[in-house]
Amino acid sequence: MVSLASLMPAGVEFLADRHLATLSTIGPSGRIHVVAVGFTVHEGDVRIITSDATQKVRNVERDARATVAQVSGAQWLSIAGSAVIERDPDAVALAVRLYAGRYRQPRVNPQRVVIKITPESVMGSAGLLA
């Protein structure tokens, strides 16, 4: 199985660059629910900040399967795994700091939570993975 540890230097750089991505979860009807997100990777986990009342949070609470995909031109990475919702203030603060470092400081949101994905498989374009 290919993991984040399989990233080549170009893959590490691609994940560090500022790119938006999509998050795919399973919606209530069983169809794939896809939304645009910003995400970070830290200590092997993917983190996405969002509001607690969003459909993506409800989807993860019902079915933990989730995939983040980032694309820029011919380069792409897809990280699939199991997701959980973190509401702990320290976990949220960490995710906000990581997001601010990759994108920008997010607006204040007292309803903020974290979707944390533990990767189970990684796919990507040539040159990003060993």
Automatic annotation (TrEMBL):
One of its GO terms (cellular component) is cytosol. Residues 10-122 form the Pyridoxamine 5'-phosphate oxidase N-terminal domain. The keyword Oxidoreductase applies. Keywords: Oxidoreductase. It holds the Pfam family PNPOx_N. InterPro entries: F420-binding_dom_put, F420H2_bilvrd_red/Heme_oxyg, Pyridox_Oxase_N, Split_barrel_FMN-bd. The lineage of its organism: Bacteria, Bacillati, Actinomycetota, Actinomycetes, Micrococcales. The keyword Oxidoreductase applies. This is Pyridoxamine 5'-phosphate oxidase. GO terms for molecular function: coenzyme F420 binding; oxidoreductase activity, acting on the CH-CH group of donors.
